[in-house]
């Protein structure tokens, strides 16, 4: 079987298949298998939608049992047993023990749908239109969320003005010494700042597509304090770094903050099934019935998968395992990989890591490493400005042996490229 049908009939808009042009068929755990039976290690994991691995056995059994009994599959926002059990489990297993109190709003089943809902709510609640977002952010590509997404490549095809957003540099991503929080305070307090008071601040605590830029707990707390002082809503986009990837279920737990709105999607259903929701502080729930409707807010299999994922997490001690693997990867990347060359910069948290190769002269170095890794049967993508950061996004359930194989492939190609001379010249030589 060939890939010809895609080249002739599928729109040019396809993206991942360009970097990884194999014909995939089966998948299990951390591996993808082609139609020919070749096994690839997956360090992309559905762009973060498969934290519990491909076809997680525990979750799969719950899904199969649910379907076998002809339980309801599509329920709009009707009351269903599956949804009731999911909300109860999420509340009992996560929110209550963490001292969090939120109402659940189910949205159309993609990340961008949920971001649109959060924006609409924040604007209606505060009766303000401006929103603060950060340079390097990725919040989705529909019109409202695209306005919050900084990449010019995506913005240029909007076809309309992308307004009502003010961008600030993310922590450690502006000019040297630039303090975004001090600047934000100035904007809010100076009556001549020329910038409208915002409804909300929205951010990923770790910018994923933006190059794995990690906000410190202190910076997050500072930002939250400014929001509280000025009556601005704090929206955490936990679509990619949430659902356990940071080590905790929510990425903001480490900072000890409680966002006003939390946006979740991607790995929420546990099985790669489409699902998205907002968690909102109860006082924000000013919605009138049906004001933000959507047909696919009631995909019942996603509720079943999402509840099973929480059980899997609890029963397998996943949180502790992620934290242990996180230190293992961090040590390897910093002490074994980056120690070899000061131009290799490592950033990350939990099981999302970036190898930043932007200090090398060769602008395509990261892409070459990713391409060569793919030849060696490792799927890994490049992110950040001009795609100069290799992004590691393993399954949270990855076995040690597979993890080591993947890290060795990356190390081999990075070292070979650096020492080949093509990229070896120092930028500031
Ligand atoms: N926010 C973040 C942080 C994301 O990583 C993504 C997807 N990469 C989105 C929003 C948009 O999600 P979706 O592609 O499901 O619309």
UniProtKB/TrEMBL annotation:
Enzyme Commission code(s) on record: 2.6.1.76
Swiss-Prot/TrEMBL keywords: Aminotransferase, Pyridoxal phosphate, Transferase
Molecular function GO terms recorded: diaminobutyrate-2-oxoglutarate transaminase activity; diaminobutyrate-pyruvate transaminase activity; pyridoxal phosphate binding
Cofactor(s) required for function per UniProt: pyridoxal 5'-phosphate
Signal peptide interval: none
Biological process per Gene Ontology, one example term: ectoine biosynthetic process
InterPro entries, alphabetized: Aminotrans_3, Aminotrans_3_PPA_site, Dat, Ectoine_EctB, PyrdxlP-dep_Trfase, PyrdxlP-dep_Trfase_major, PyrdxlP-dep_Trfase_small
Pfam family, one: Aminotran_3
Family membership: Belongs to the class-III pyridoxal-phosphate-dependent aminotransferase family.
PANTHER family assigned to the protein according to its UniProt record, in alphabetical order: DIAMINOBUTYRATE--2-OXOGLUTARATE AMINOTRANSFERASE, DIAMINOBUTYRATE--2-OXOGLUTARATE TRANSAMINASE
Descriptive protein name: Diaminobutyrate--2-oxoglutarate transaminase
Gene it is expressed from: ectB
């Amino acid at each position: 079987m060939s890939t010809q049908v895609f080249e002739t009939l599928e729109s040019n808009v396809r993206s991942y298949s360009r970097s990884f042009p194999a014909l995939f068929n089966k998948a299990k755990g951390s591996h993808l298998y082609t139609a020919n039976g070749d096994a690839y290690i997956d360090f992309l994991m559905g762009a973060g939608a498969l934290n519990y691995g491909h076809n997680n056995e525990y979750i799969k059994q719950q899904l199969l049992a649910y379907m076998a009994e002809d339980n309801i599959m599509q329920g709009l926002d009707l009351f269903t047993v599956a949804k009731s059990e999911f909300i109860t489990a999420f509340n009992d297993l996560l929110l209550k023990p963490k001292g969090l109190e939120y109402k659940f709003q189910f949205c159309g089943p993609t990340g961008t749908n949920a971001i649109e809902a959060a924006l609409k709510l924040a604007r209606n609640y505060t009766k303000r239109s401006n929103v603060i977002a950060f340079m390097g952010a990725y919040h989705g590509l529909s019109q409202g969320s695209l306005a919050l997404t900084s990449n010019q490549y995506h913005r240029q095809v909007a076809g309309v003005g992308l307004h009502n957003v003010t961008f600030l540099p993310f922590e450690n991503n502006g000019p040297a010494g630039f303090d975004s929080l001090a600047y934000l305070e100035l904007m809010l307090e100076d009556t001549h700042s020329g910038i409208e008071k915002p409804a909300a601040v929205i951010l990923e605590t770790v910018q994923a597509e933006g190059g794995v830029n990690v906000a410190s707990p202190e910076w997050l707390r500072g930002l939250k304090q400014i929001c509280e002082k000025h009556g601005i809503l704090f929206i955490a986009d936990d679509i990619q770094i949430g659902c356990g990837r940071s080590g905790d279920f929510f990425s903001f737990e480490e900072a000890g903050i409680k966002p006003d709105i939390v946006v979740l999607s991607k790995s929420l259903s546990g099985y790669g099934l489409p699902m998205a929701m907002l968690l909102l502080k109860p006082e924000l729930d000013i919605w009138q019935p049906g004001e933000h409707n959507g047909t696919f807010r009631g995909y019942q299999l996603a509720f079943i998968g999402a509840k099973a994922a929480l059980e899997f997490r609890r029963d397998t001690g996943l949180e502790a395992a992620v934290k242990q693997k996180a230190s293992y990867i961090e040590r390897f990347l910093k002490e074994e990989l980056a120690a070899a060359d000061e131009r290799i910069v490592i950033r990350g948290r939990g099981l999302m890591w970036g190898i930043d190769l932007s200090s090398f002269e060769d602008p395509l170095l990261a892409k070459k490493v990713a391409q060569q890794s793919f030849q060696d049967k490792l799927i890994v993508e490049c992110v950040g400005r001009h795609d100069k950061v290799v992004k590691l996004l393993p399954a949270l359930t990855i076995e040690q042996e597979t993890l080591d194989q993947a890290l060795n492939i990356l190390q081999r190609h990075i070292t070979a490229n650096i020492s080949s001379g093509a990229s070896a010249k120092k930028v500031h030589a």
